[in-house]
Amino acid sequence: MTVSRLIELVRQQGAASNSRGMELATVIAPPPGLVIRIDNMALTLDGDDLIVCESLLEHEIDYTTTPQLAGSEMTLAGGGPHRHDVTAVTIQEQTMILHSRLKAGDRVAVLALPGEQQYLVFDKVVIAG
Question: Of 36, 43, 51, nearest to 104 (Cα)?
């Protein structure tokens, strides 16, 4: 094998293992049956073709919060004003459901994974301004 042929083989192998990088796509159908179309390709992807970041899907999170409150005054039935000096209320170990943020027509950033058999749907994108 000549040196130039060896160099060409190394280049081909390197090109085959490099992904195309970040690309833009459009949501055709929202989750749970997510379908996207990658820009400049006649290619639609769904199901096993996609790995989606959790923040883009409906999911549950557990949280605790302590909002700061101002004292409040209220009037009780049959009585005069009644004042409570509450400065904080702690809400512990609650569960919140975050609903899908993706809908048809949304633009998303996608990344081809090595081998380009799957794409990572990274985030929703918008045009600033």
Answer: 36
The model's pTM is 0.61
> Domain segments of the chain: what residues?
25-72+80-125
pLDDT category, 86, cuts 50, 70, 90?
low
Tokens of 8: 């060409």
The length of the chain in residues reads 129
Q: Give, in order, the Cα–Cα distances in Å from 54 to each of 31, 41, 67, 121.
A: 11, 26, 26, 10
Cα atoms in the 13 Å half-sphere on the side-chain side of 23 = 18
Of the CA atoms within 13 Å of residue 40, those in its CB half-sphere come to 3
DSSP 68: B
40 CB-near residues (< 8 Å, 6+ apart)? none
